[in-house]
Specification:
By secondary structure, the protein is mainly beta. The chain contains no helices and 11 strands. The strands form 2 sheets. Strands 2, 4, 5, 6, 9, 10 and 11 form a 7-stranded mixed beta sheet that branches. The chain has a 4-stranded antiparallel beta sheet with strand order 1-3-8-7, with no helix packed on it.
Length: 121
């Protein structure tokens, strides 16, 4: 089992910044990609940003230029630097890891419990 633990959420004013962290532990296998998703009340979960082991990144259009994803492969940790936060960024942010595990080496998805980000007007 792979465990993902998020940290760094909180309450900030519009225009402020937060940095989220997600550390993976357990039977890691090979982490092919990690990313962040978010879900606001009454809305569907959406992709925020992803990053591969080689550093290739992808962002939702709504966060491009404001958020930056990075990773430390040696520590199995992914970060999300969030700048210029807006009230519409308010959501629970979930860490995701796409992992290949022994014995099948199939691609599996693992999720953290989520961390609340609230941006006040």
């Amino acid at each position: 089992q792979v465990q993902l633990v998020e940290s760094g959420g909180g309450l900030v004013q519009a225009g402020g910044s937060l940095r989220l962290s997600c550390a993976a532990s357990g039977s890691i296998g090979v982490i092919n990609a990690m990313g962040w998703y978010r879900q606001a009340p009454g809305k569907q979960r959406e992709l925020v940003a992803t990053i591969t082991r080689t550093g290739s990144t992808d962002y939702a259009d709504s966060v491009k230029g404001r958020f930056a994803i990075s990773r430390d492969n040696a520590r199995n940790t992914v970060y999300l630097q969030m700048n210029g936060l807006k009230p519409e960024d308010t959501a629970v942010y979930y860490c995701n890891a796409k992992v290949t595990l022994s014995p099948s080496w199939r691609m599996d998805d693992f999720w953290g419990q989520g961390t609340q980000v609230t941006v006040s007007s």
